[in-house]
Amino acid sequence: MIHEIIDIRTQHSKSKLYTYILDNSPEIDNTRKRPLVIICPGGGYEFTSDREAEPIAIKMNAMGFHSCVLRYSVRPATFPTALLELSMAVALTRKKAEEWHVDINKIIVVGFSAGGHLAASLGVFWKSSFLSKALGIPNEMIKPNGILLSYPVITSGTFAHEGSFKALLGDNYDEQLHQVSLEKYVSSDTPPTFLWHTYTDEPVPVENSFLFANALLKNKVSLEMHIYPNGVHGLSLGTDETMALDNERTIQPEVSNWIKMAGRWISGL
Fold first, then answer.
1. CA dist list (Å): 237 to 13, 122, 220, 221, 242
2. What is the pLDDT of residues 165-176, one digit of tens each?
3. Model pTM greater than 0.85?
């Protein structure tokens, strides 16, 4: 396995990409090209959660996928700093595709909660001129082939997680709030999407996922979606492995199959 920490630099920021790149075996297939997932942990744009980082990367490896964890910039960094960093991470994986044996048609961005907002932002904005101008690279280099969203923050409207947007926008909150309500920017260019959420999520209501799903349907974008009846926000895998400290409510065994379904979805892209 190639496990390294790579600096992702933009004009005004530096984040870190932790790689979990699988080796090819000459005994099995030394020419194999694998899907690669870039994981954006949640944390309300205040921090990036360990519970939604390496445990997810390891599970993805176990299904035969390369994985990376992006520790993107959070408060006091403001929009679009983290989005530029994720864009650069996708471009890097495309540049490294031959060396890392990556299937360039299966580069997936994965996001949890506010990290879901980040992943979905790239999904709706990858073709935007403000990204290509800021980065100086073609839009096609930063295009994800799919987005995988776990209980994502999506809307800045009625069902918004206000804290995420205050951290993301800082002093620009009133001016830019409408620009980061992602259901408004879904188009036919948005990549195929896998979504899951719980009905009883209070901090980030399930309506966030429904708003994004409805926008995908209106634009005829391929979608797989799963809504579980029970579970608090921030479940990650829903297992002992990702239980939040002293919080057994973050163990929810019935949601733990989401990652296997997501794996089948990635393989089928």
1. 30, 23, 29, 26, 6
2. 999 999 999 999
3. yes
